[in-house]
Specification:
Layout: H1 6-30, H2 47-60, H3 64-71, H4 75-92, H5 97-101, H6 105-116, H7 135-141, E1 142-143, E2 148-149
Antiparallel strand pairs: 1-2
Helix pairs in contact: 1-4, 2-4, 3-4
Length: 150
C-alpha cells in the first residue's frame, strides 16, 4: 500500500519522529510559551499514524476527505497533518528524478528525449477545498463557475 517494506517503514518512522522532535525543540527555544507544556487537546493520531497518513496520500493521491474516513479524523485534520509532516519528508526523502536532472544539462536533455516518445496524460479536474480564512485567499480560490472554493 505504501510502496516500501515494513523494515524500511519502521526506520523511516524513527527518522521522521526524531526530525519532528528536533523541530519542536527549536520552536520551543525561539517562542514564548503561553500554555504549559502538555496542555491543550491531545492528538487523535499517534506520530506513526500521522506519518502513515502522509505516506498514504503521497502514494495513493486520495482526497483528504477519504484519508479522514480511513484514519477516523476530519478532512481538515487530515489536511493539517499532511502539511505538518510534508516539510519533514522533504528533508528525509531524496529529490525526485526531475529535480536531480535539472542540475545536469546533459542528463536533462536525454530525459527530455525519452519523455517525448511517450504520451503524457494530465488529470486537470478541480477538487473542492476548505474555504480559506482570509478574504484575499478566498478570492484566489473561489470558482465563480462552480460557485465554490477549489
Amino acid at each position: 500500500m505504501l510502496g516500501i517494506s515494513y523494515q524500511d517503514l519502521q526506520q523511516f518512522i524513527g527518522q521522521a519522529k526524531q526530525r519532528h522532535q528536533d523541530i519542536q525543540i527549536q520552536k520551543e527555544q525561539s517562542e514564548t510559551r503561553l500554555i504549559a507544556k502538555g496542555g491543550g487537546r491531545k492528538a487523535s493520531l499517534s506520530h506513526a499514524e500521522q506519518i502513515i497518513l502522509t505516506l498514504t496520500y503521497l502514494r495513493q493521491h486520495l482526497t483528504f476527505q477519504m484519508l479522514g474516513l480511513l484514519f477516523d479524523v476530519s478532512e481538515s485534520t487530515a489536511h493539517n497533518i499532511f502539511n505538518d509532516w510534508l516539510p519533514i519528508f522533504h528533508d528525509l526523502l531524496p529529490e525526485s528524478l526531475f529535480a536531480q536532472l535539472q542540475d545536469r544539462d546533459s542528463d536533462w536533455a536525454l530525459a527530455q528525449e525519452v519523455l517525448e516518445q511517450h504520451e503524457l496524460i494530465i488529470d486537470s479536474s478541480e477538487q473542492e477545498r476548505e474555504r480559506p480564512t482570509g478574504s484575499k485567499e478566498q478570492e484566489t480560490y473561489y470558482s465563480g463557475y462552480k460557485k465554490t472554493h477549489i
